[in-house]
């Protein structure tokens, strides 16, 4: 039996490794799936740059390295700050 991805963990890896949320794998997915999308719960971030990393998690809990799939995001300061 081949190992399959059960879900994906999304981390803020800017300074350490803080798990933000997880996303389920697409139902009935087989093989490589591109263009995965998902929506996070509402999160509170400090303004500035954050490096997000995604790991694939197998049913046995084995997890890929989130440093292999990353994205920089920029959180603007609140509108009422100077």
Architecture overview:
The chain is an all-beta fold. The chain has one domain (1-25, 46-82). It has no helices and four strands. Strand 1 (7-12) and strand 2 form a beta hairpin. It is elongated. The N and C termini lie far apart (57 Å). The model has no long low-confidence stretch (mean pLDDT 90).
Note the main attributes of this structure:
single chain, elongated, 82 residues, four-stranded antiparallel beta sheet, mainly beta
Topology (SSEs and partners):
Elements: E1 7-12, E2 18-24, E3 48-57, E4 70-75
Antiparallel strand pairs: 1-2, 1-3, 3-4
Task: Offer a quick outline of the entry.
With 82 residues, this protein is mainly beta. It is built from no helices and four strands. The protein has one domain.
Rg (CA only): 15 Å
Spell the H/E element sequence.
EEEE
Alpha-beta classification: mainly beta
Strand order, biggest sheet?
2-1-3-4
Number of domains: 1
Low-confidence stretches: none
């Amino acid at each position: 039996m081949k190992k399959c991805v059960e879900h994906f963990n999304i981390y803020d890896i800017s300074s350490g490794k803080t798990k933000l949320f997880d996303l389920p794998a697409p139902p009935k997915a087989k093989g490589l799936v591109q263009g995965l999308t998902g929506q996070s719960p509402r999160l509170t971030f400090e303004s500035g740059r954050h490096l997000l990393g995604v790991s694939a998690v197998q049913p046995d809990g084995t997890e890929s390295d989130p440093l292999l799939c990353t994205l920089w995001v920029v959180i603007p300061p609140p509108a009422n700050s100077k």
